[in-house]
Amino acid sequence: MDSNEQHHPLDKATELFRKFNIYYGRTSKRYANMVRQYGGITASTILKSIIQHPKCIGEPISLTINYAAPVLAGNLSIQSTPIRTNRSTQHWFVEMFQNKEVVITGTAVFSNRRETWSSLEAKFPNVPSEEYIKPIQFGEMPPWLDNYDIRIIKGIPKMFSASSSDNPSDSITVQWMKDNPKRNIDFISLTAMCDAFFPRIYVKRNALVPIGTVSLTIYFHTDSKVLEKHGDKEVLGYARAFQFYNGYFDQTAELWTPEGQLLATTSQIVYYKE
């Protein structure tokens, strides 16, 4: 990481120091959400605690974060434990604490990928290039949105765009996005971007409904070599829900390079209140 990235808001927000096998950090006002820290930055901080661990082997292939309680403004601590290291995978269990109480639990799997037969089944969406889409101006929205240049092709809630003509019959959103200011992508920033979508219920109902992510899972379909080649270019995100049912809905998403390489897929289960 170069000196410019070390001073990027994302890196400051996920900064950790280690003492007696515990990582310590603090939430960032820049990544605040409505009543808690932005969930994507929480997931990135959890992942960073593993990547920086002296026993870490390989690169992430999956990450699951369970939001047991809101991550409120203030200090936090993380305990990352390698549960088992096999020939091809390394398994981790993670807990985040605030005021001596668990607020996040998580698991992760790391691996040293080897070159072998590969095939892409998913199809890259047919969309206009980023340069043809205007960035969204969020106004009085939560601070974390200012950290992204988001250009929505389809699926912006009408409450955020008076000119929106989208039909809310589905919950699909397609958007270009990148860090603001620009930053070379890596697993930390990719993790945060996996949560950089409006909640699907906002799109489906065109209303600000109280929500909270309960659990988020990310599958990484790339490695550091691909991410280094990608640099600070935009990423295409495609998000949708399958069902809204009795207080919970799912949100699934794909993240792509402009050249059509799949970087990650993600899913989460989200609580909503009538």
What's this, in brief?
α3 runs antiparallel to α4 (187-193). The protein has helices at residues 3-6, 9-13, 39-51, 187-193, 200-205, 224-230, and strands at residues 17-19, 22-26, 59-67, 75-85, 89-98, 101-111, 148-154, 173-179, 211-220, 235-240, 244-245, 248-256, 262-272.
Can you describe what's shown?
The protein is α+β, with helices and mostly antiparallel strands and 274 residues long. It has one domain: Acyl-CoA thioesterase, double hotdog domain (Porin, Beta Barrel), CATH 2.40.160.210. The chain has six helices and 13 strands. It has helices spanning 3-6, 9-13, 39-51, 187-193, 200-205, 224-230, and strands at 17-19, 22-26, 59-67, 75-85, 89-98, 101-111, 148-154, 173-179, 211-220, 235-240, 244-245, 248-256, 262-272. Strands 1, 2, 3, 4, 5, 6, 7, 8, 9, 10, 11, 12 and 13 form a 13-stranded antiparallel β-sheet that branches. Helix 3 (39-51) runs antiparallel to helix 4. The longest helix has 13 residues, at 39-51. The radius of gyration is 18 Å and the shape is globular. 36% of the residues are buried. The mean pLDDT is 93.
- Total of DSSP H or I helical runs spanning 4+ residues: 6
How helical, in percent, are the residues? Answer: 10-25%
Instruction: Quote the beta fraction.
Output: 35-45%
What is the CATH top level name? Mainly Beta
Oligomer: single chain
Q: What's the architecture, going by CATH?
A: Beta Barrel
CATH superfamily: Acyl-CoA thioesterase, double hotdog domain
**Using DSSP, what is the number of strands?**
13
Taking the sheet with the most strands, its summary is:
13 strands, antiparallel
- Ends: how far apart? 45 Å
**Class by SSE composition:** alpha+beta
Number of domains: 1
Q: Report the uncertain regions.
A: none
- Rg calculated over all Cα atoms: 18 Å
Pfam families: 4HBT_3 (PF13622), 4HBT_3C (PF20789)
InterPro entries: ACOT8-like_C (IPR049450), Acyl-CoA_hotdog (IPR042171), HotDog_dom_sf (IPR029069), TesB_ACOT8-like_N (IPR049449)
Protein name: Thioesterase family protein
